[in-house]
Write a structure and sequence with these properties.
- The structure holds two protein chains of two kinds.
- By secondary structure, chain A is mainly alpha-helical.
- The relative contact order of chain A is 0.13.
- Chain B is an all-alpha fold.
- Chain B has a single domain, classed as MetI-like fold (Orthogonal Bundle).
- In chain B, about 80% of the residues lie in helices and about 0% in strands.
- Chain B is built from ten helices and no strands.
- Classes of the chains: A mainly alpha, B mainly alpha.
Chain lengths: ~240, ~250
């Protein structure tokens, strides 16, 4: 309880800093917390805002679906086959630290303007951490499980279904959490410069028209939704890890 | 070289070779992807005639500044948070969800505040890297074996000597991991910021080449960034292995 209170106090302190910055920087650069939330409430009441929001979350949904299924599939396979895992790992780590935004022109050439380019950008951001986490999850499984599976003469499909996936679930959820954040980032980056729809586009447009309150309102709402989903996954993550011990 | 290393090298060579063959054979149109050999040749030419030297220097100095800031501020914040348990518990949920906040959305705001110069770019790089360093520092300080601290107090070491002779060496591998992440994240932040809105730097040059249909320069610069990141990763990896070996673990 005291911990929640402390966290709330911290949020209050951040809001005060924000207000202070507003007094320092002035109307042109920043909107005050009150203005931002008033604008957010206005936006929430307009249908065009919801069109942008649903476009963003649709793209995010597709991107997550692809990144999670493909990422976990590849990661589990690489984790089960030691040599391919060893071959792939440094390549994956290198790809992870590569600024994927530089590949954006290629994606645009491949998919054209529109929702598929955003989804692709979300996927390439999110899939690599999911592969790395899934691979690590399989490697961390106690060898005795595999021995038992061999003694029980489980087939490969049974091994994956009844041993590997249940044993790896806590780590898979950790990977999902990291993957979610990066996929959202990828989708928004895609919207920020080659799109006519979505929340990323809305931010860029309000910058172009110097509409600071709208920009701040959209950013704050995005951040709130992201933190909310991430906290839920974090809670799940902690619970699963504690149960596994 | 290990067996996995050999296979990896073969795999990469095969992939590049297949791309080269597909481009040369007309399977992929040159308007879409150019052959890797042309990318490399053009990159070599760009490097020699110095057209991209200024952009490289600018991007690398931005990354360097962001990394120095992220590592030093991250280390200090991590150490302070570690010593104040109550504040740490309050901050923990924010640290854990930090990377879910899409920072690039803040970038236009930073431009409005700081103006269109290097400062917003370095800030984005810093914001990206700093929390990885904070988390690693806290992890490292958490994992110091209690027996080492007890030994320090038995030997009557003061807080400064304990920090320098016990805490820092013991937390070093985690601090190294934090630095590694901070470098990777600052790199991503700086290049992406330059790509979105800037007037110079590697990210900007790629966006510019893309907008003016200059495929050769665009792919040459992409190749440069890929090679650079791979090189930095390899150096850090070898350094890490050397540290691990010296520690005998």
């Amino acid at each position: 309880m005291r911990q929640i209170l402390d966290s709330l106090l911290l949020v209050l302190a951040l809001a005060l800093v924000w207000q202070g910055l507003y007094w320092l920087a002035g109307d042109l650069a920043l909107a005050s917390p009150a203005q931002t939330f008033a604008r957010a409430a206005e936006l929430l009441a307009t249908p065009s805002f919801w069109r942008h929001a649903s476009e963003t979350f649709l793209a995010l949904g597709y991107a997550l679906l692809i990144a999670v299924t493909a990422g976990m599939g590849i990661g589990l396979a690489l984790g089960m086959h030691r040599l391919s895992g060893e071959v792939a790992e440094p390549v994956l780590v290198s790809l992870y630290s590569l600024p994927k935004i530089t590949l954006y022109p290629v994606i645009l050439l491949l998919f054209g303007l529109g929702i598929s380019a955003k989804i692709a950008l979300g996927v390439i951001h999110g899939i690599i951490p999911i592969i790395i986490f899934s691979m690590g999850a399989v490697r961390a499984i106690a060898p005795v499980y595999f021995k038992t599976a061999r003694v029980l003469r489980l087939s490969r499909g049974q091994l994956v279904r009844t041993v590997i996936v249940p044993a790896a679930i806590p780590e898979l959820v950790s990977g999902l959490r990291v993957g979610f954040s990066l996929t959202l980032l990828g989708v928004l980056i895609g919207e920020m410069f080659a799109s006519q729809r979505g929340l990323g586009y809305l931010v860029m447009k309000s910058i172009g028209t110097l509409d600071v309150p709208t920009m701040m309102a959209v950013i704050v709402m995005l951040a709130l939704v992201a933190v909310l989903i991430s906290s839920l996954l974090l809670y799940l993550d902690h619970r699963l890890h504690r149960r596994a011990l | 070289m290990s067996r996995a290393g050999t296979i990896r090298l073969l795999f990469v060579v095969l992939c590049v070779g297949a791309l080269e063959a597909a481009c040369r054979g007309g399977l992929i149109s040159p308007q879409f992807v150019i052959p890797p050999s042309v990318m490399a040749a053009h990159l070599w030419q760009l490097l020699i005639d110095g057209t991209i030297t200024a952009d490289i220097v600018e991007t690398l100095s931005n990354v360097l500044m962001a990394v120095i800031l992220a590592v030093s501020v991250g280390f200090v914040c991590g150490a302070v948070l570690h010593s104040l348990p109550r504040l740490r518990r309050a901050v923990d949920p924010f640290l854990a969800t930090y990377y879910a906040v899409p920072f690039f959305a803040f970038y236009p705001l930073l431009i409005v505040i700081f103006g269109l110069n290097a400062l917003p770019i370095v800030t984005i790089g810093f914001l990206f890297g700093v929390v990885a360093m904070i988390i690693s520092t806290i992890n490292g300080l958490d994992r110091i074996p209690p027996v080492l601290l007890k030994t320090a107090s038995v030997l009557g070491m003061g807080p400064v000597r304990t920090a320098l002779m016990i805490k820092l060496p013991s937390a070093a591998p985690h601090l190294f991991t934090g630095t590694k992440l901070a470098i990777a994240y600052s790199f991503i932040g700086v290049i992406a910021a330059e790509f979105i809105m800037s007037s110079s730097g590697l990210g900007y040059s790629i966006a510019y080449a893309f907008n003016s249909f200059d495929n050769r320069t665009m792919y040459a610069l992409m190749l440069f960034i890929i090679l650079l990141v791979t090189l930095i990763n390899a150096v850090l990896y070898m350094w890490e292995q050397a540290i691990m070996q010296r520690r005998g673990s």
